[in-house]
Amino acid sequence: MSDFASRLITAARTLGPLCVGIDPHAGRVPALFGGDTPDGLARWGEAIIAQVVGRAGIIKPQVGLFERLGPDGMRALQIVCEAARNAGLIVIADAKRGDIGSTAEGYAQAYLGKAAPFPCDAVTVNPYMGIDTLEPFLSAAESNGKGVVVLTRTSNPGSADFQMQDMGGAPLYARVVEALQPAIQRLEGADGWSSLMLVAGATGPDEARKLRQLAPKCLFLVPGYGAQGSGAQDALAGFVRRGNHLEGGVVNTSRSVNFPDGAASAGNLAEWKSAIAQAIDAAQADLTALSGVAERSGTLAGN
Questions:
Q1: CB neighbours of 279 closer than 8 A, spacing ≥ 6?
Q2: Using 50, 70 and 90 to split pLDDT, how confident is the model at 205?
Q3: Residues facing 63 on adjacent strands
Q4: Total domain count for the chain?
Q5: Residue-by-residue DSSP string for 43-106
Q6: Eight-class DSSP state of 29
Q7: Over the stretch 155-173, which tens digit does the pLDDT of each residue have?
Q8: CATH code, 164
Q9: Active-site residue identified among 96, 210, 217, 273
Q10: What range defines the domain where residue 182 resides?
Q11: Is this structure's pTM higher than 0.90?
Q12: Domain for residue 128, yes or no?
């Protein structure tokens, strides 16, 4: 089994760094798929995945937007994760878990275990209860070839409330990365990248460059591109030059590819598919215009 970092960087080198979020916001899943119901979320998510294949290599379902519909919503998440894995996509579950002891172990097994009910390749975690809370995730990742994505410098406006606070001459986010160094080394993979990723929001390009200095072997998950207002240049600020391309992680966009204007007005499935495909292609083209791709194996045409 190849390590998570090697799988992710291969996907980004082949198709580009776009990560497609799957965020079923309340009231926005089209009636074409069943609307804001568990079955609607599952069918809509599967249809998004079908358009991602061949256009991008990574998806990121937002767990909370499935969880709001209770156990049937979580079953919809399970269907989406399984469909993506069966399609050969890399799945990052955006769950932002973080707890102690056996509770953290339960979360880790739910997403990263060998028999995980929500099968994914990596999960986002919150480190602010302490490094010990990450151990169950790190252990599961190490055993099963998975990844752990640590919240570091996030893209939301309130991130500065704590993450930017001075802690003895360095901001808190930098102190977190300092404490993560043993885990980063522990999960280093065959391509030299670690399967411990850092969240580095596109809304803080200067901080992303600082993070790259602090963690040269970490891949970044970059939110904040697109609907949150940041462009490709800021989103790729923490990437590094490798030959003819930039690499160093993936850039997530959700609303702009989940709910583009043409999809909202689509009268049938063919029109909806076309709108989604165009939105994914446009985002990937915007990013690859700056980053390039190293191993393009055909076009970005999908299903």
A1: 256, 257, 260, 262, 263
A2: very high
A3: none
A4: 1
A5: HHHHHHHHHHTTT-SEEEEBHHHHHTTHHHHHHHHHHHHHHHHHTT-EEEEEEEE---HHHHHH
A6: S
A7: 988 888 888 888 899 998 9
A8: 3.20.20.70
A9: 96
A10: 4-291
A11: yes
A12: yes
| 298 within domain boundaries | no
How many alpha carbons fall within 13 Å on the CB side of residue 81? 25
- Is the model's pLDDT at 81 over the cut of 50? yes
Closest C-alpha to 276, from 14, 33, 76, 13: 33
Neighbours of 115 (CB within 10 A): 7
Helices first, then strands: H and E counts in the chain? 12, 10
| pLDDT single digits (tens) 106-132 | 999 999 999 999 999 999 999 999 999
Q: Indicate the residue type of 148.
A: V
Residue 299 in any domain: the answer is no
At 89, give phi and psi (nearest 5°): -90, 155
Which residues, other chains included, contact 232 with Cβ-Cβ below 8 Å and sequence gap of 6+?
225, 251, 286, 287, 289, 290, 291
Taken in order 78, 84, 86, 88, is the CA torsion positive or negative? Answer: negative
The reply to whether 96 belongs to the active site is: yes
Nearest in space to 232 (alpha carbons), one of 278, 300, 282, 286? 286
What DSSP letter does each residue of 177-212 carry, written as one string?
HHHHHHHHHHTB-TTS-EEEEEEE-TT-HHHHHHHH
Structure tokens at 239: 């990437």
Q: How confident is the model at residue 212 (pLDDT cuts 50, 70, 90)?
A: very high
